[in-house]
Amino acid sequence: MDRNLLHELNRARAARRAAAVVTDTQTGEQRLVPERDASGDPLSDELQRRFRSGRSGLLEDGRTFLTVSVPPPRLVVIGAVHISQALVPLAAVAGLDVSIIDPRTAFSTPERFPGVELIADWPEEALREHPLDDYTALAALTHDPKIDDVPLAEALKAGCFYVGALGSRKTHAKRVERLGAMGLAPEQIARIHAPIGLDIGAQSPAEIAVAVLAQVIQTLRRGRTVAEPAEAKTAA
């Protein structure tokens, strides 16, 4: 691989940005395509599919090989609550790097969350040290606007691939008003999955955790879409 190309690829990896090396196996010619530029590339459709799956491989032409480099997906959970206790081990099994942010030290304890990165700071402080990005999912689970609203806004601004929030339709309607007052555009706010999780009729914290993780994976692998209307989903 050309040294300059390798340097650019390593820069992308260090910044947690996805990129693909396109190799002509017959001529040896290579080029780097950052994910942000994929939509304008001649191989746009295939590149975007590969970025979603994270899989490298030979294309149907038998000569073009795509080497895909995507950051490991992360899940940032806002709130060290019962749902989080069920969600964290499930997400870890699914291969997500997980961290929990909750300023309430009575909840953010190693006893309740063994082996998990716990950040017992207010989200606005924690996210300055641990910034969000395209390959991060954020799930806001506290039901407390003082804790949830700032990370939700930051996740939308950062382009997180998934943003979800716990709460009923009525709770979310008030949240939409608050986020709008914070300067978020309606199309940004519409990306929030609220009530959070796939509509599987979940009732218990463990069931809600399954619904949330399934929705995170669905969004990661199928691509970002505007969230479904709240009335079509369960009021978690």
Written overview of the protein:
It holds the Pfam family XdhC_C. Residues 23-44 are annotated as: Disordered. InterPro entries: MoCofactor_Util/Proc, XdhC_Rossmann_dom. Residues 75-216 form the XdhC Rossmann domain. This protein is of the alpha/beta class and 236 residues long. It folds into 2 domains: 3-69, no CATH class; 74-232, 3-Layer(aba) Sandwich (Rossmann fold). The chain is 38% helix and 17% strand. The strands form 2 sheets. A 5-stranded parallel sheet has the order 7-6-5-8-9, sandwiched between helices. Strand 1 and strand 2 form a beta hairpin. Helix 3 packs across helix 8 (205-222). The chain is elongated and about 60 Å long. The model is unreliable at 228-236 (pLDDT under 50).
Low-confidence stretches: 228-236
CATH class designation of the largest domain: Alpha Beta
Q: Identify the CATH architecture of the largest domain.
A: 3-Layer(aba) Sandwich
Strand content: 15-25%
CATH superfamily of the largest domain: NAD(P)-binding Rossmann-like Domain
Counted by DSSP, the helix tally is: 8
Structural class: alpha/beta
SSE order, as H and E? HEEHEEEHEEHEHEHHH
The helicity comes to: 25-40%
* Arithmetic mean of pLDDT: 91
User: Biggest sheet, open or closed, and with what strands and sense?
Assistant: 5 strands, parallel
Counting structural domains, the number is 2
Shape call: elongated
Oligomer kind: single chain
Q: Mind telling me the C-alpha Rg?
A: 19 Å
* CATH fold-level name of the largest domain: Rossmann fold
Give the distance, in angstroms, between the N- and C-terminal Cα atoms. Answer: 50 Å
Strand order of the largest sheet: 7-6-5-8-9
Compute the number of strand runs: 9
Region (Disordered): 23-44
Domain XdhC Rossmann: 75-216
Pfam families: XdhC_C
InterPro entries: MoCofactor_Util/Proc (IPR052698), XdhC_Rossmann_dom (IPR027051)
